Model the fold of this input.
Amino acid sequence: MNSKKTIILTQVDSWFFRDGRPFNMNEFSQSDISSIFPPYPPTVVGAIRAGLARAKGWNGCGSWSDELKAWIGDGPNLGKLKFNGPYLIKDGEVLFPAPMYLGKYKKEEDNKNENKACNCLEIAKLGSQEVDCDLGKVRMPTFDKCKDIDKNKCKWKPLEKAYLTKENMELVLKGEDISNKKLEIVEAKELWNREFRLGIELDKKSKTTKEGALYSTNHIRLRKGIGLGVVVVYDGVDEKFEIDSIIPFGGESRLANVKVLDKEVSLPNGPKADELEKENGKVRFSILHITPAYFTKMPNLGEKVPGTEGKVVFAFLGRPAKVGGWDSLNRTPLPLKSCIPAGSSWFCEADANVAENIVNMNGEKIGEMTEYGFGQILIGNW
Done:
């Protein structure tokens, strides 16, 4: 029988999660190294497993006991643990990455080198006619909901670094016309700020420095009421779930407060099987990644998205996320993997007789390394 706990992580001080660039002494430029946020699943999983181990007597050095390994695994093996998330939490409410097929019109101002939003939101829809392009004949998105008086000057752009509440995400997943609705978009700047930090390299023996030893980083400072949520699923463990109340988290010896809840994260509901749009014996649906996904092979147009019945008609994909981590056993960075970023979406078709199977995939995970939290999806209309 599986048990589930939700762990809420909040800041003690700022956090730093490095990107894929080298961050070793005497390697490349160490100026203005930016922190990614939210952190990728391996970083969160590693911190929580170490916190669980410390609560069971591990001193922070050396290998775990055989008893611990049977529960929380060893190295890449997670033992009896599985994870969902991480999710952004605002005042106790879970936020989900806005799908890249949800966009806002921006108006190019005359004689000004800037874009100005006209505040018209629209969910991208595919045109009925195929267009010849470098990929062959493809159905392209169409946009016609802009109500600005100068709408000819407006261009649709996908929302970036934006999040939706569960309620608003359900409106988008069901494909409702949102042009007349006040959809609450939570932007990243409402959730966190970046802080510039300056440091200097010291020789461990002499405690002195040298020329060129300065480095600078950009840390993440969360706004009040913001945290991260992670669901831990564990199997066959009768003992009490215990974890340290403060754990190391991320780079530069940062810390996180830990709060454990007995409830699971509530995900948005997608459309029911009979609410999916159907055409010529086919059912149409969207797949939205709410956590990064790792596929060993990316599907092309007309091919199935791994782990689903859907054949790709169109895709809204962000730039590949370079996901690594830290191997604490060997004291070295983990190899980088190119992953599909959260918010990326697939527009798919499948036989109408599998509609029930499709909607039942809402909240499931697809691809590789799903036990870490990679590949969680939501199902919607398009």
Remarks:
- The chain is about 10% helix and 40% strand.
- Residues 309 and 357 are 8 Å apart (CA to CA).
- The chain has a mean pLDDT of 87.
- The two ends are 37 Å apart (CA to CA).
